[in-house]
Please model this.
Amino acid sequence: MMTRALAGLMLASPLALAADGSWSSQSFGGTMTRGGQVVKSRPVQSPSPLASGAMASRAYWKITTSGPAPVGMRIRLCSAARCLMLPGMAGEIALPTDMSPGGPFRFEYATARGGIFSSPVTVLSNALTVAYTSPR
Model:
């Protein structure tokens, strides 16, 4: 009986031995005034240290601007390891394992459209929630 219980524990999924968690933060994003400009947000990160061995799983974001986003605006979520293209002003995306779940993260905004914008676009808020798993 004991052998079966031990074998069951050894075959358990690593996710069954992990704790799920998340954190949320937001920052100001900056102002875009012309095409070809890259604007970087202030960094966002976990408000408290995460357990050693924690692994990022998903990111959820919502971006609020002062007006309509410029045509062709590209948004990236960046960590020290890499940047990921985001498909819109809000959504969710799986995070690769080389992105630290505690951050810091920053948003980068760019547009290929040339010239000066008739009205600047200010990113009022970059809201980010990062989900992660931690070993128990």
Observations:
- The first helix runs from residue 2 to 11.
- The beta strands are 18-27, 30-34, 38-40, 55-65, 73-78, 83-86, 90-94, 106-111, 116-135.
- The helical segments are 2-11.
